[in-house]
C-alpha cells in the first residue's frame, strides 16, 4: 500500500529534472551573503522563492530544448534504466549540494554578523533553512500549476465555442487570465487589501503609550493652548509632542541658557484634508512664535507619522531649545506598505507642508527669518525631496537639508548619485568635489573631500549595508554599481549579484533593516547629530559639546526603547 501511494505521489509531483537542477543552483546562490545577517526563517523564505523561480527557469529551458533542438538530433533515446539512474543522481546531487551550501552559508552568516558586532547563527540551527525552503518552493510551484490549470480550463471553450485554433487557445487563455487578475488587483483587490490594512493600522493609531501624556507647555501641539486637539494627533504624533528635552534638561546638558523647544504636529484626524492639515500646522507655528526662533525644521514623516526622536532632540540640544520642528501625518500604514500604497501621499504631504511653511517664512524680512532646514528619513526623505525640482531650487529655498536612509527610488538622490564624480563609488559618492552635496556612512565621511563645502549644505546619510537605500527592481536583471565597485566596510566580500536571486535577497533584507546594531543597516543612531552638525552647526559648536549631546541622545534612545 505504501509503495502504491509513493508511486502515485511521484506521478502527481510530475517533476521536471532540468527544473530541479536549476532550482538547486538558484538555492545555492540564494544562501550566499546579502547585505544583512539573516536567520534561518528569513533565509528559508527567500531561498524557497528563489528555488521556485529556478525551477520555472529550468522548465522553460527544458521545453525549448524539447521543442527546438531535440527534433533535430539523431541520437537515440537512452534506455529507461539510464534515465532512472540519471534522475536519481539529480535528486541526490541537489539534496547533497543544498546541505553543503547550508553548512557553508552558516559560516558566511557568522562572518557577516561579526562585521556588525553581532552574534551569528549556529550551523545546526541554520540547517532548518532547508526544510522551510522546500515547503515554500512547493507552495509557489503549486500556485503556478493552479494558474496553469485555470488557463487550460479557459482555453477549452475558446477552442470549442470561440473557434480559436487549438495551438493559439492557451495563449489567448493566458492573456485573459492575466488581464482579469491585473484588473482585479488594481481595481478591487489592491484597494481592498490596503483598505483592510489601513483600517487595521488605524486602530493602532488610536493607541497611546503610557509614557505619552498631554503636554502642558504651550510650545507643544496637543497642549491646552494648542489649536490641535491631543486625541487627533495619532499614536506617533502624541509620542512626538509629549517627549523630548525641555529647557531645564537642555541647559543641564549644554551648560548654557535654554528655551523651551517648539514641536508642532498635525495628525490625519486633526483636519479634513492634507491641505487643511498643512494650514493648521502653519497656524500652530504662528501661535507658538516659531518664526521668531533661531532654526526651524520641516520634517516629512514616515508612513505612520513617525519622527526620529534622536534627530529631533539633536537639533533642539544643538540650538539650546531656540528651535521649532513641524511635521504632519499622511498615513496609518508602516513605511513598507506606505511605499506600495501611499507613496503619492508622502510626496503630497511633503510638498504641501513645505510650501505653506516657506510661504510664511519668505514673507518675513530676511534678517528676521529663522534658519530653514528640511529633514526626512526613509520614505520621509522621498516626501521631503518632493517640493524641489533640482539642487538649484533646493538651495534657493532652504538653509540646509539632511536626508537619512533614502530609498533607491528617490528622484533627487538618484540624479545626484548617477552624476557622481568619476572614480567615486556608489556607496560613498562624491558629487562636484563635495561643493554642495555630501554623503556619509559615518561621521568622518561628511568631512571628505577636504575641499570647501558651500552653504546651504545638503547631506545624505546612507550605510553601505542599508537595504532601503540599495533595493531596486533593477536588481532583477542588472548588477548594481555598489556590487561592481569597491564594497562598503560592512558589506561581505562574498556577496555577489545573480539575476532574480539578489533582488529577492535584498527584498528580504528590507524586513530586517533595523534588526542590527546602530551604525549598520537602517539604524543611524547618533549619526544624525553629526549630520546636523555638518549641515547647520550653531555658533560656538565644538567637539566637547557634541560629545555631551551624543551621550544624552544615547541614554534617551535606551529609555525610549524601554517605555514606548
Key features?
alpha/beta, seven-stranded parallel beta sheet, 54% helix, elongated
SSE layout and pairings?
Blueprint: H1 2-13, H2 17-30, H3 40-69, H4 80-115, H5 123-126, H6 128-160, H7 169-205, H8 234-242, H9 247-254, E1 262-266, H10 274-288, E2 295-300, H11 309-318, E3 323-328, H12 335-341, H13 343-362, E4 371-377, H14 379-385, H15 391-397, E5 400-404, H16 411-418, E6 437-440, E7 457-461, H17 467-470, H18 481-484, H19 501-510, H20 527-535, H21 543-563
Parallel strand pairs: 1-3, 2-3, 2-4, 4-5, 5-7, 6-7
Helix pairs in contact: 2-3, 2-4, 3-6, 3-19, 6-7, 10-13, 11-20, 11-21, 12-13, 13-14
Provide structural commentary.
This protein is an alpha/beta fold. It has helices at residues 2-13, 17-30, 40-69, 80-115, 123-126, 128-160, 169-205, 234-242, 247-254, 274-288, 309-318, 335-341, 343-362, 379-385, 391-397, 411-418, 467-470, 481-484, 501-510, 527-535, 543-563, and strands spanning 262-266, 295-300, 323-328, 371-377, 400-404, 437-440, 457-461. The protein has a seven-stranded parallel β-sheet with strand order 1-3-2-4-5-7-6, sandwiched between helices. The chain is elongated, with a radius of gyration of 28 Å.
Mean pLDDT: 86
- Helices and strands, in order, run as HHHHHHHHHEHEHEHHEHHEHEEHHHHH
Oligomer: single chain
What structural class do you assign from the helix and strand content? alpha/beta
Uncertain runs are: none
Spatial order of strands in the largest sheet: 1-3-2-4-5-7-6
Number of domains: 2
If classified by CATH, what would the architecture of the largest domain be?
Answer: 3-Layer(aba) Sandwich
CATH domain topology of the largest domain: Rossmann fold
Helix percent reads 40-55%
Intertermini distance? 59 Å
Q: Compute the gyration radius: what is it? A: 28 Å
CATH class category of the largest domain: Alpha Beta
- How would the global form be characterised? elongated
Protein name: Alpha/beta-hydrolase catalytic domain-containing protein
Transmembrane segments: 15-36, 42-65, 85-106, 126-147, 168-188
InterPro entries: Alpha/beta-hydrolase_catalytic, Alpha/beta-hydrolase_N_dom
Keywords: Membrane, Transmembrane, Transmembrane helix
Amino acid at each position: 500500500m505504501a509503495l502504491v501511494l509513493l508511486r502515485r505521489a511521484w506521478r502527481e509531483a510530475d517533476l521536471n529534472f532540468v527544473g530541479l537542477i536549476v532550482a538547486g543552483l538558484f538555492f545555492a546562490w540564494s544562501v550566499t551573503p546579502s547585505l544583512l545577517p539573516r536567520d534561518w526563517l528569513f533565509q528559508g523564505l527567500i531561498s524557497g522563492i528563489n528555488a521556485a523561480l529556478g525551477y520555472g527557469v529550468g522548465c522553460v529551458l527544458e521545453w525549448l530544448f524539447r521543442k527546438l533542438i531535440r527534433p533535430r538530433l539523431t541520437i537515440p533515446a537512452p534506455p529507461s534504466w539510464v534515465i532512472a539512474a540519471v534522475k536519481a543522481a539529480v535528486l541526490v546531487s541537489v539534496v547533497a549540494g543544498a546541505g553543503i551550501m547550508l553548512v557553508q552559508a552558516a559560516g558566511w552568516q557568522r562572518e557577516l554578523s561579526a562585521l556588525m558586532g553581532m552574534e551569528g547563527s549556529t550551523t545546526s540551527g541554520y540547517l532548518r533553512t532547508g526544510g522551510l525552503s522546500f515547503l515554500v518552493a512547493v507552495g509557489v510551484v503549486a500556485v503556478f500549476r493552479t494558474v496553469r490549470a485555470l488557463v487550460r480550463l479557459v482555453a477549452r471553450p475558446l477552442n470549442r465555442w470561440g473557434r480559436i485554433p487549438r495551438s493559439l487557445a492557451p495563449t489567448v487563455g493566458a492573456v485573459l487570465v492575466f488581464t482579469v487578475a491585473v484588473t482585479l488587483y488594481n481595481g478591487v483587490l489592491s484597494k481592498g487589501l490596503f483598505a483592510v490594512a489601513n483600517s487595521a493600522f488605524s486602530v493602532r493609531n488610536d493607541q497611546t503609550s503610557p509614557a505619552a501624556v498631554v503636554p502642558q507647555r504651550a510650545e507643544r501641539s496637543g497642549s491646552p493652548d494648542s489649536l490641535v486637539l491631543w486625541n487627533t494627533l495619532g499614536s506617533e504624533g502624541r509620542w512626538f509632542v509629549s517627549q523630548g528635552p525641555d529647557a531645564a534638561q537642555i541647559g543641564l546638558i549644554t551648560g548654557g541658557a535654554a528655551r523651551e523647544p517648539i514641536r508642532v504636529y498635525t495628525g490625519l484626524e486633526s483636519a479634513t484634508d492634507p491641505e487643511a492639515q498643512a494650514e493648521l500646522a502653519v497656524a500652530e507655528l504662528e501661535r507658538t512664535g516659531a518664526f521668531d526662533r533661531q532654526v526651524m525644521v520641516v520634517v516629512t514623516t514616515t508612513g505612520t507619522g513617525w519622527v526620529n526622536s534622536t534627530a529631533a532632540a539633536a537639533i533642539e540640544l544643538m540650538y539650546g531649545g531656540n528651535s521649532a520642528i513641524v511635521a504632519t501625518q499622511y498615513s496609518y500604514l508602516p513605511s513598507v506598505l506606505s511605499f506600495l500604497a501611499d507613496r503619492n501621499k508622502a510626496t503630497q504631504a511633503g510638498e504641501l507642508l513645505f510650501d505653506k511653511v516657506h510661504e510664511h517664512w519668505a514673507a518675513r524680512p530676511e534678517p528676521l527669518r529663522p534658519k530653514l532646514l528640511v529633514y526626512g528619513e526613509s520614505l520621509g526623505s522621498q516626501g521631503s525631496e518632493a517640493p524641489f525640482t533640482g539642487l538649484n531650487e533646493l538651495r534657493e529655498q532652504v538653509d540646509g537639508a539632511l536626508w537619512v536612509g533614502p530609498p533607491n527610488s528617490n528622484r533627487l538622490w538618484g540624479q545626484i548619485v548617477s552624476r557622481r564624480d568619476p572614480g567615486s563609488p556608489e556607496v560613498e559618492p562624491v558629487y562636484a568635489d563635495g561643493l554642495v552635496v555630501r554623503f556619509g556612512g559615518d561621521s568622518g565621511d561628511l568631512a571628505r573631500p577636504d575641499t570647501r563645502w558651500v552653504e546651504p549644505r545638503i547631506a545624505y546619510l546612507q550605510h553601505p549595508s542599508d537595504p532601503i537605500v540599495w533595493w531596486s527592481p533593477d536588481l532583477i536583471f542588472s548588477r548594481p554599481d555598489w556590487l561592481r565597485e569597491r564594497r562598503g566596510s560592512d558589506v561581505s566580500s562574498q556577496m555577489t549579484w545573480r539575476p532574480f536571486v539578489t533582488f529577492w535577497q535584498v527584498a528580504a533584507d528590507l524586513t530586517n533593516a533595523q534588526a542590527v546594531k546602530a551604525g549598520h543597516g537602517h539604524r543611524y543612531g547618533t549619526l544624525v547629530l553629526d549630520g546636523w552638525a555638518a549641515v547647520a552647526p550653531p555658533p560656538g559648536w565644538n567637539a566637547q559639546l557634541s560629545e555631551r549631546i551624543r551621550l544624552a541622545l544615547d541614554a534617551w534612545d535606551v529609555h525610549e526603547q524601554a517605555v514606548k
